[in-house]
Amino acid sequence: MRVAIEDEGLTISSPGGFIEGVNLKNLLTVEPHGRNPVLSDALKRIGLAEKTGRGIDRIFEGSIVFGRPLPDYSETTSTYVKLFIQRAEPDLAFTKMISNEENRLGRSLPINSLLILSALQSQRRLTIAEIAEVTNIGEIRAKAVVEKLVEAGLVDAGGNNKSRFYILSSKVYKEQDNIVGYVRQTGIDAVKYEAWIMELLQKQGGKITRDNVVELLNVTPSQAYRLLKKMSDKGRIKLVGSGRTAYYELAK
User: Fold this and answer.
1) pTM for the structure as a whole
2) What is the domain-level CATH number for residue 42?
3) How confident is the model over 103-154, as pLDDT tens digits?
4) Are residues 158 and 233 in the same domain?
5) The dihedral of CA 215, 217, 221, 225: what is its sign?
6) Which residues make beta-bridge pairs with 155?
7) Are residues 80 and 99 part of one domain?
8) Which residue of 17, 100, 118, 251 shows the fewest CB atoms closer than 10 Å?
9) Residue 190 scores a pLDDT above 50
10) pLDDT tier at 56 (50, 70, 90 boundaries)?
């Protein structure tokens, strides 16, 4: 076995490819079995091996829970297994969200739930088919897990039928101080700018600034001003204050 710690991260190489029946697609789903059952049993008895045979699950779980990139086995060949763990700054907001949910449940989140949350955190918006492809979880199982995450308030669903998609919930985006990101994801189709502004205004407790609109719509300050002025003239919102402290609120 070779262990290398470099600037890019940690690499572990072990002679011999995956055990028969194991591949990159089913690493987390295949029935666990050792290359040498007698040796595996001995190592489990003395505490040097994971008793349930789900050591890879633990590696993935640790990476996700601590806000790190997923373990990479892609360079594995028929002659050796190679694991690369990238050196990267942790995603503290995502880690906090996972920790809060596990504290609420009083238990760890299942590996499939963690994989799907991680996929939505990195990809932002996915269909069930895309989730299944990214996580290597079957579509039927992926859909069941996603629906449980929706019920738990961690994931929101949008669209209908074949166009149905999933994103992290507004609660998660709010905890990450990124409500603008949430509105962008839910309104990415053909929603008008005014509808985007109204949704963000509601998410922010009934107040919005010109800078909020600049960030939300990726427009210039003058364009944001004209949009807000137009909505104000329609009686949908009203300006409160002036100068740098000015903001808009819903018209009563």
Assistant:
1) 0.63
2) 3.30.565.60
3) 988 999 999 999 999 999 888 888 999 999 999 899 999 999 999 998 888 8
4) no
5) negative
6) 168
7) no
8) 251
9) no
10) confident
Can you tell me whether residue 81 is helix, strand or coil?
strand
- State the DSSP string of the chain: -EEEE-SSEEEEEEES-PPTT--TTSTTTSPP--SSHHHHHHHHHTTSS-TTS-HHHHHHHHHHHTT-PPPB-TT--SSEEEEEEE-----HHHHHHHHHHHHHHTSPPPHHHHHHHHHHHHHS-B-HHHHHHHHT--HHHHHHHHHHHHHTTSEEEES-GGG-EEEE-HHHHHHTT-HHHHHHHHT-SS--HHHHHHHHHHHTTSEE-HHHHHHHHT--HHHHHHHHHHHHHTTSEEEES-GGG-EEEE--
In this predicted model, what pLDDT tens digit does every residue of 121-131 receive, in sequence order? 888 888 999 99
Distance of alpha carbon 233 from alpha carbon 211, whole angstroms: 19
> Are 199 and 219 within 8 A, CB to CB?
no
Q: Worst-scoring range by mean pLDDT, 77-86, 142-151, 211-220?
A: 211-220
Is residue 59 located within the same domain as residue 35?
yes
